[in-house]
Amino acid sequence: MIKNILVVEDDVVFCKLLTRFLDKNQYRTHDAQSAKKALSLLEKESYDLAILDYRLPDDNGLHILETIKRDNKVGKVIMITRYGDEEVASKAIELGADAYISKPINPDELLTVIRGL
Amino acid sequence: MKLSISPNVHLVEPGDFEPADHWYPRALNSNIHPLVSTFLNLSHHQIAERYLRLNPKANLDAILSILKYQPKYFRWSGTDMMHVTNNEGNRKLTLIETNSCPSGQKSMPLLDFNYEQGGYRRLIEETFKDMVDQHDESGALAVIYDKNPMENIGYAATIAEVFDENVYLAQFKNEDTDPPVQFRNGKMFVREGEDHWVEIRAAFRYVTQEPWNRLPKNSRTLLLNPIEACLAGGRNKEVASRAYDEFNEQFKDKGIEIFTPKTFRNIPYHQLQSHFDKLGGSMVIKVPDSNAGQGVYTIINQKELDVALSELASDPDELYIVQQLIHSNYNEGSHTKDTWYHVGTIPDNKGRSYAFDLRMMMHATSEGMRPLAVYSRKSRFPLNQPLPENMSSWEVYGTNLSVKGDDGWSYADERLILFDVRNFALLGLGIDELIRGFIQSVMAVYAIDQNAIKTFDKEMSFN
């Protein structure tokens, strides 16, 4: 059962809109706009789900995914890829992501993916 | 809503407005103070007549003509003012700056609980929509911004509802090397996909950091506000100061004037010390195109001046604005009438009184300029306590809430004072101060807009 979610995405507005949407759907959310902030949050808390953007200002989402899998701090992972980037998507699945979703993101579709995990 | 249709662009759809996303929680759950509500509902005639009782030498027709003025360029604005008094107890609201992308909606209690989108909708419906309806260009609608996502998502969602069409919400940062917003021959385009750009007919603009680097003059895409409003003084304190002087000259026999702290313009670096000495050992230094409290130095002693001079030394060719400091209890001026002090907040139960500013957001409607949102911000350290050693005077005089951090801009909203039932009384302001503040603000908008007309209409006819 997914209850708390970490959203890692460098676009502040994206984070704000998505976390608000998830909050309204009864999830508890934290957000990070950089890999550094995400890793610091992961040191303090475990999450049921991480939604990771591939492109971050200081690293990429795949590296965070590797860390998450190694440290076992997150139950499930959804990778956000750029506009049909199949290569990143397949790499993410290979590294243990549970799903991927391509931008643009319709929050309702993302909710369906989360509920299906 | 579709998130990230391209990097830093989202598509906002009708029905996306969520009040909790566009107000601070404490503003959303507040009740507007009845006095503020009364002020916001006053007609132009009531405001002008009352102002005349407060300033018997003012000319009624001149006040009314300014209140009913239709700005050509500067149709949405905000001013920051301070409540000051002199040694004779003569209280005034002094204009500190005028802003062409003012924040304020997220801090404003709802005027009418049945009007859920509050000031967002009033601005879009009564100002932006009329402008767009009269603008003969094709394309979509957009909100472009570089700060304040809370309000800008709110504006995008309101525009989507009012026009019943999707709105592109695009971040347009100064430092972005591949921005999702482009101008081609004066027309704006927003990136929708990898190589697909959408033409924009009109955009609500909240681009604050050196916007002249990115926005063209004579934009074919309608902008609220266009860059001309910034260049004529909406984002340059030196140009604004000149516009205020011209206004005061024009209206000197009408008994009205824009009141600002004594101001010296175009001061070179090497003359800052002599101005400090001439002003009695205190002053404010401003970088002309700074904003959000950045590039403003309050100076109360030689040590603070030395710190400012060392920071400013990196740009020796800059010309600065120097203003007379508005004083606290512990830093006094020497002249009887021309020295101004912060009136400050009503002392709290520990006796502390703080400097505060008054932000007044206004918009141009079919009937003229109307107030839209008001709030105040207080300083961190009280006026009536001695400044601890090594504490900067900015802590006493600085009221701006914008804080630039690693993750972008944030707001120290604990110093925000809402104009609600609980907090408004703490300011010690009455309806007469709000009227005076509004008249000061409208005069400033008039001055800057007239400056824009004088500067850019002539330039356009020359071209």
Lay out the secondary structure:
The complex is a heterodimer of chains A (about 120) and B (about 475).
Chain A: E1 4-8, H1 12-24, E2 28-32, H2 35-44, E3 47-53, H3 61-71, E4 74-81, H4 86-94, E5 99-102, H5 107-116
Parallel strand pairs in A: 1-2, 1-3, 3-4, 4-5
Chain B: E1 2-6, E2 9-12, H1 19-22, H2 25-28, H3 34-40, H4 44-54, H5 60-67, E3 76-85, E4 91-99, H6 118-133, E5 140-145, H7 149-163, E6 167-171, E7 181-184, E8 187-191, E9 197-206, E10 222-224, H8 227-234, H9 237-250, E11 263-268, H10 272-278, E12 283-286, E13 296-299, H11 302-312, E14 319-323, E15 341-342, E16 356-365, E17 368-378, H12 394-397, E18 402-405, E19 408-411, E20 416-417, H13 431-462
Parallel strand pairs in B: 5-6, 5-9, 9-10
Antiparallel strand pairs in B: 1-2, 2-6, 3-4, 3-15, 3-16, 7-8, 8-9, 11-14, 12-13, 12-14, 16-17, 17-20, 18-19
Helix pairs in contact in B: 4-5, 4-13, 6-7, 8-9, 8-13, 9-13
Condensed summary:
The complex is a heterodimer of chains A (117) and B (463). Chain A is of the alpha/beta class and 117 residues long.
Description:
The complex is a heterodimer of chains A (117) and B (463). By secondary structure, chain A is an alpha/beta fold. In chain A, 45% of the residues lie in helices and 25% in strands. Chain A has one domain: Response regulator (Rossmann fold, 3-Layer(aba) Sandwich). Chain A has helices at residues 12-24, 35-44, 61-71, 86-94, 107-116; strands spanning 4-8, 28-32, 47-53, 74-81, 99-102. In chain A, β4 (74-81), α4 and β5 (99-102) form a beta-alpha-beta unit. The longest helix of chain A has 13 residues, at 12-24. The mean pLDDT of chain A is 90. Chain B folds into two domains: 2-24 and 113-224, Rossmann fold (3-Layer(aba) Sandwich); 34-100 and 237-261 and 326-454, no CATH class. The chains are: A alpha/beta (117), B alpha+beta (463). Chain A: This is Fis family transcriptional regulator. Chain A: It comes from Anditalea andensis. Chain A: InterPro entries: Bact_response_regulator (IPR050595), CheY-like_superfamily (IPR011006), Sig_transdc_resp-reg_receiver (IPR001789). Chain A: Keywords: Phosphoprotein.
